[in-house]
Amino acid sequence: DIIARLDPESYQALVRESEAELALAEAKLLTQRAMVERSQADLENIRAKLISARAQTARAEANFQNIERELERSRTLLNKGIVSKSLFDAAQTAVVESRAQTEQAKAEEEAASKQVVSGRAGLSIAMAQVKEAEAQIDLKKAALDKRRADLDNTIIRSPVDGVVADRSVDVGQTVAASLQAPTLFTIAQDLRRMQVTASIDEADIGRIREGQPALFTVDAFGDRSFSGSVAQIRKAGKTVQNVVTYTVVISADNPDLFLMPGMTANVEIEIFKIPGALVVPDAALRFEPADAGPGDGKSASTSTGAEARSSPQGRRGDPEAGLRKLTQALDLTKEQQGVIRTVFQEARRERASAPRPDEGSEEMGTFRDKIRKQIQQDIRKVLTPEQRTLYERFSGKTETKRLQRGTLWSLDDKSRPVPIPIIIGATDGSSTEVAGEGIASGMEVIVGTW
User: Which structural domain range is residue 439 located in?
Assistant: First the structure.
């Protein structure tokens, strides 16, 4: 559809000028073609003259030869006294005249031959001028096409079907384009299909994958969540105040046309999902009664305890248990199972052969972390991309980096705080997954006092 028009007067004048130049070039071509035909006719006439000159030369030579023979006969008869001296002199004069006529005929033949060469050159020049005129016509047609295109461009049409979201010009305004074309209109192609451009911190971008579900809210509809999915992860990072972020494009449906271009969105991308998980507010994990002792259950990370890790290889003394767990979770093939079994065995031999630090020391924790990270790295090498994504949940690279032991507090029958030991799982920043024998869905826990 037409959305704007530019003043076409100057472009129309240029089009008329180009049309006149094209007509002039076409007329010149007709003239040059007529010159070619004239040159061809002249050449044929000259060739006819050459043929005639050659015939005259042949006749003069034959006549000269005949007169020479007559002179020889007159010479013989003169010596015998049969003819008079005057007849012999007449025969000599006839020979001289015939020789002159022969030379004249040859000269005329040579002149006719040169005229043929000149006529051929003239014809070649005329034909070249025809080609030049044809090229001029092509050039004028190209110039005319360009100016017609410029004239057509004075009518600005929308490149897509959509809605005009912004207009940057008014009627009568001068529009100038130099190195960059000015923006006249901003057109939203299909408001029923929107995209959200989100800036993701470099620490989180490694966990984002195309196709992951996302939820977002906008200030205009603060009580409503909109759903979408990750459509694109752009590789170019942006640095603002020493913070590196990456652009992630989220595609979302907008059937009710509530969302509009330019809105600010708060985005949450689902990294993974734990069905049926028990969750508590993060405030419940931070709560601690004022009279709690140092051993009453302050949350503490058990980074060196095998029972507190989400380690997919199982307990250190039973690698087969870890292999069975991985096989069940990732659907490993026989070949993958064999490679991972070898990884576990080599890690076990390395632990046995390396000098062991004192149990419970910081060096022991560092040693175990090193072995664990090497195992995880070797396992990732044999997994498919889909299996690797699932493995992230177990390997310590997603939200469940370390399972921690913590404490929740509940009230007993006498309204006294009672500690409940739990294992801390994944978190979304506001709620955290918990597990333990003393908790159940719907159970009340303390989140604070007032």
Answer: 272-302+403-450
